[in-house]
């Protein structure tokens, strides 16, 4: 339970770093796809990506960020998975896609 509240605190504290990492993940992993924000966005577009991110932990000035993603095609989930991201010294240093399942 403590880890849950710590993650919420870190996500709010490092919101700008989270957004910067989110933009980088969209550019590298989901280039050319439309970004979805609401339920209705995924109903009309051919392929839409929904990203949900949180800061998992902070270690020695490095932020470990985890994004959960869903790819939707006209409302139906085509794939989902996790992308891990490391943010350090003001830049995104590492992006790993951990899984994509249909």
Q: Which features would summarize this protein structure in a list?
A:
102 residues; five-stranded mixed beta sheet; globular; 3 helices; alpha+beta; 49% strand
How many domains make up the 3D coordinates?
A: 1
CA radius of gyration is 14 Å
Averaged pLDDT, please?
85
Number of helices: 3
Structural class: alpha+beta
Coarse shape:
globular
Task: Describe, in short, the structure shown.
This protein has 3 helices and 5 strands. With 102 residues, it is an alpha+beta fold.
Walk me through the structure:
30% of the residues lie in helices and 49% in strands. The mean pLDDT is 85. The chain is globular. It has a five-stranded mixed sheet. It has one domain (1-98). The protein has helices at 2-13, 15-29, 41-44; strands at 34-35, 48-59, 62-73, 76-88, 91-101. The chain has 102 residues and is of the alpha+beta class. β2 and β3 (62-73) form a beta hairpin. It contains three helices and five strands, in the order ααβαββββ.
Topology (elements, then pairings):
Layout: H1 2-13, H2 15-29, E1 34-35, H3 41-44, E2 48-59, E3 62-73, E4 76-88, E5 91-101
Parallel strand pairs: 1-2
Antiparallel strand pairs: 2-3, 3-4, 4-5
């Amino acid at each position: 339970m403590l880890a849950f509240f710590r993650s919420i605190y870190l996500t709010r504290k490092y919101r700008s770093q989270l957004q910067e990492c989110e933009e980088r993940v969209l550019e590298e992993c989901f280039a050319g796809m439309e970004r979805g924000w609401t339920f209705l966005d995924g109903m009309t577009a051919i392929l839409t990506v929904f990203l949900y991110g949180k800061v998992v932990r902070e270690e020695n000035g490095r932020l470990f960020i985890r994004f959960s993603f869903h790819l939707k095609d006209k409302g139906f989930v085509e794939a989902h998975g996790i992308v891990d991201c490391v943010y350090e010294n003001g830049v995104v240093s590492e992006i790993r896609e951990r899984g994509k399942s249909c």
